[in-house]
Input
Amino acid sequence: MPIHAPRLSREGYNLQRSVMRDLLRFAVDPNVISLAGGLPASECLPLDSLKECLDTVLTRDGPRALQYSPQHLGLRAWIADYMGSRGVSCTAEEVFITNGNQHGLAILSRLFLDPGQPAVIEEVTFTGIHQITGGRDAELRTVPTDLDSGVVVESFEEALKASPSPRLAVLITDFHNPLGVSIAEEKRAELARLAAKYEVPLIEDDPYAPLRFRGRPLLPIKAYDEAGMVFYLGSFSKMLAPALRLGWIVAPAELMPRITTLRESFDLESSTLFQRAVAEFLSQGLLESHLKQITGAHRERCDTMLGALEEHLSDVARWSKPDGGVFVWVYLPEGLDTTEMFHQAIERRVAYIPGGVFSVDGSTKNALRLNFSNVQPEAIEEGVARLADVIRAALQP
Amino acid sequence: MPIHAPRLSREGYNLQRSVMRDLLRFAVDPNVISLAGGLPASECLPLDSLKECLDTVLTRDGPRALQYSPQHLGLRAWIADYMGSRGVSCTAEEVFITNGNQHGLAILSRLFLDPGQPAVIEEVTFTGIHQITGGRDAELRTVPTDLDSGVVVESFEEALKASPSPRLAVLITDFHNPLGVSIAEEKRAELARLAAKYEVPLIEDDPYAPLRFRGRPLLPIKAYDEAGMVFYLGSFSKMLAPALRLGWIVAPAELMPRITTLRESFDLESSTLFQRAVAEFLSQGLLESHLKQITGAHRERCDTMLGALEEHLSDVARWSKPDGGVFVWVYLPEGLDTTEMFHQAIERRVAYIPGGVFSVDGSTKNALRLNFSNVQPEAIEEGVARLADVIRAALQP
Output
């Protein structure tokens, strides 16, 4: 049928379709080893126990589990306890259930940021963070991130204190997507202090923290927040299963009516059935053994990847050495362009995400993101070997 | 802890917390007969078959049913066929899965409407429609709705042709929330023609159409759309279960990349587990008998309500006579204020939604919305009798 093209809004027009999506069309060949994804280890998803929890809830709660419903108080209370165990003192009234961290970013960005206003994000960061500021047409101030210790605090302060005052800042705390790095412990209190000092809401995006497989857990930035200026985002997508579409915001209780209204204007509510099933899973105490199992698999795969990188690429590349999460970030020599290299990689049957995708100004061309969590160790070894071939070929004069 | 109040965005500040929410706190007493809800008949929700479909999908598809996933092609194809059966010719590529109709409204309003631009909605309409235009700070043009035949077409055209041109219009086609009325058949082609003529995207919000319990099904406005200017919103919330959080947009395929990107910036995706379970339910052919059962219950309850209104209030009120959906709208004599009357109603242990909640300019004070779908017939009779007492008392000089 003939179509009149309706005029689009600035947001509809400005939001960039991710280059990643177009590139990944080439990675569907089953012979391609894909290190491009971001999924938790499939074999370790708690399939049987979630099935049982769904059955339990549908049998016990009946039609109430299928109707509209207020946010599940038991789940909010569990999350408050869990946050308490991680050093964040909060009550169920300070927990708001979302459809995951992107949803939390969308809600909080709209709560604080009018179109065109200044916002602070990292130079290299998750594309979903680009989208919430890019879609708002924000005046972006970007700060660099150290591959060992996370966001550079001095640069962050410069961005916060510049005039006009930014309306929000976003940081990923643990096992950064795509960098794999965690913000160093000694920086965290200072980041909370800066948010308070400059009165800039700091959104702490922290979906990977429960996926630590090495080292001592660190307190989130929110644990150091005495001013109520840090807004914590957590998710069940990586710690339990993406298809549950559940996450949470920790925010002051007096902002909850506005957060609730804003969220209802998006999509009313999260599924009460999934909220009840996850609450059941958690109340049965199943989380600890699940996390032990899945992070065990992730650790083995990460170690395999770090070993293969060392074996094949130690002379030409450097990379992050994560203690959890699902990603490793690799820097190649200056001058290489991993987007251009992508087609050679696909020909060699290995896929990754080019670093430029995560770079706000597109300048980080000589880097790439590798996923280790949902790939078998043998495939990781072979994939990195193939990748090394592609890189060496690209380095030929 | 002491809180710095972060500055809010215009959207965060402007979005009004619904008066309804505050009023309904009074309606939780189990002795209150609540005609205030909007839920489908609980007894008729397909609890057992959905449970079986979830089990089937988790067993058959394994971890894939718990991971991130593209939109389910089988579900999109079923929806395209279903729309075809309702006179809308479209393919799976023209179907986009949402979390329900509010989600579709949020996505399309942001695709077309920049903050402050003109938009056309009905004078009395669903609060979620107020939210998407109010939250966007839209320059609102409202049009009246006839209680027998739906939106007044002449007024609608005036609003479309006024300068500057509106960026979108929203109409509810069948069994309007809160009015219960459907747009008359002879108006529908004209509405599609007007959207095309003035090149204004018309969002057709139609969650209740499958809940017809009387009369011949009418083609949606989209069935008359030759210009691609009508954007259809459908939902499984009322036809299957609210907790599934699934609905759809029908839109031209060339807009899908933008719709996809915009939606991903909100919350990535809808649950693949629920998409697969609903596709399973539908492919087993279970929908027809489910709709027969639930609309049977709704018809009985609606007839009970209409009979009780006739018995108790025919001398002082007039009301819509729905052929489906879940709501009846009641007009009382001028001068009565159903918001003021609400507290007397709660004292008399009956609850409704005051009409002012749905009125964009707050002027419709002498009306109220009644729900019949999720209340037992005996309670409906008793509730309307109590309501009549309250109204008669309010009419005393």
Remarks:
- Chain A has two domains: 10-46+289-395, 47-283.
- The mean pLDDT of chain A is 94.
- The two ends of chain A are 52 Å apart (CA to CA).
- Chain A touches chain B through 89 residues (CB under 8 Å).
